[in-house]
Amino acid sequence: MRNDRKLGIILLCFLIVPFEVFAESVGCSSPELGAIISVFKSIFNIICIVVPILLIISIIINITKIVVNPDDKKLLKKILNSIIATIVIFFIPMFINVAVNITYNNSSNSDLFNFTLCWKSSNNNSFTSNYIPLDNNRKNIIGNNYYEKGDSKQNDDIKSTENSIDSSVETSYGVFLGLDHSDGLNKLYKYKLVVIDLQEFSKNDVEKLHSKGIKVYSYLNVGSVEEYRSYYKKFKNIYLGTYENWEDEKWVDVSNKDYQNFIINTLEPSLRAKGADGYFIDNCDVYSIKKSDSIYNGLNTILGSVHKHNLPMLINGGDQFVTKAIKDGSYSSLFDGVNQEEVFTLINFDNHTYHSQSSSDTKYYKNYLSLVKSKGLKVYLLEYGADSSKEKEIKDYCTSNGFSYYNSKSYNLD
Asked: Which secondary-structure segment (H or E) carries 325?
């Protein structure tokens, strides 16, 4: 019955190994990948039922033979091996799930945790997570692209599938990347800290906000370039590819010296000259798109140079980059905190509705943010369309952890 055991082992490895490759290389960041993982797991579970049945049939046949020929010791050995193989293969799914649950509940922000999250996520239909993280880039659904002024894809007609959005908001922090100078400043006056794109505002605008005691963090996109930016064509030769779902934005090779010099010596100084109190750094997820030392070091060069001006810097998303920087100890010279989108909420852009984030992704983000907090870094949450019940959950979580949050009524952030 050695062949039977070999068959079981080969089938098991055939299913598990590809899954591990998928999980490690790209994570559970897209519905397509989620579907693939789900199929692999379904086939694996079927095999673990069918193979034991076949082995049981083999046992019955061999028992029949041994009744006819009771002195055949080879048949006895085959029967014993078949029984062992049947028990082992039948219980493999249980052993794996126990191991996954133990790892899942005791791991934080590691490759092993990502693998277990992929496995557990395949148990439900919620494969539409935004950061890719586990991934690689977990920004499939939400990205700064949705917020840029003049984006033809923006749609204000998003309706909540839950209760109406609570009119009360957290006023310590607000993100308004969809606003520009023409919209005026009145909407910002009730906040203590606002994030806006200072390329769309004047120094006088910032001074007015400062006069009311409001701190202004400027949006600074370091990992990609939008077509409407005046410098878009300048770097067309170093683009790494089109931002998923958005043809008018390109990932950029941050290891390029000319691009680094532009961000460090031209763009950032222009924002600082307008009075920026800090920066909201976006698209460090380029490291997830192209995970290489050159990209990681390029981000370090840009962020390290900007950080020397002693202005607070928040990394929006970029969990893989942030985690690596924490692990190698370079984080303190690169940034001062993070902003994480969609920890508790999720926007479905197919039918323009707000939803609760999947429990597995919420757990992933909470583990990630716990790691960030443990290093003394500030944490901000950006949520979308949370009703009164969901907002209370968000507020309670942030209050208990010393975090700040903003619940935007519009995914346009205007």
From this structure: helix 319-328
Q: CA separation (Å) from 112 to 47, 239, 310?
A: 25, 32, 35
Collect all residues with Cβ–Cβ distance below 8 Å to 376 and sequence separation of at least 6: none
Strand arrangement of the beta sheet that strand 193-196 belongs to: 173-175, 193-196, 215-221, 278-282, 313-316, 337-341, 378-384, 404-408
- How many CB atoms are located within 10 Å of the residue 326 CB? 19
Q: Are 328 and 319 in contact (CB under 8 A)?
A: no
Q: H or E element: which one contains 301?
A: helix 293-307
Residue 64: phi, psi to the nearest 5?
A: -60, -40
Burial classification of residue 389, based on how many CB atoms lie within 10 Å of its CB (0-12 exposed, 13-18 middle, 19 or more buried):
exposed
| CATH number, span 144-408 | 3.20.20.70
Query: What confidence tens digit (pLDDT) does each residue in 217-226 have?
Result: 999 999 999 9
The angle that helices 293-307 and 319-328 make with each other, rounded to 10 degrees, is: 80
- Over residues 291-318, the pLDDT tens digits come to 999 999 999 999 999 999 999 999 999 9
pTM: 0.65
Among candidate residues 390, 311, 379, the one with its CA nearest the CA of residue 340:
379
**CA 276/CA 207 separation, integer angstroms:** 10
* Residue of 308, 314, 307, 318 whose CA lies nearest to 284: 318
| The two structure tokens encoding residue 410 | 């519009």
d(Cα 284, Cα 152) in Å, to the nearest integer?
Answer: 24
Q: Count Cβ atoms below 10 Å from residue 162 Cβ, excluding itself.
A: 16
Which residues sit opposite 378 in a β-bridge? 337
Residue 50's alpha-carbon distances to 8, 43, 85, 89, in angstroms, are: 10, 10, 13, 10
In the chain, how many H helices and how many E strands? 12, 14
d(CA 326, CA 314): 14
Distance between start and end Cα atoms, the chain: 68
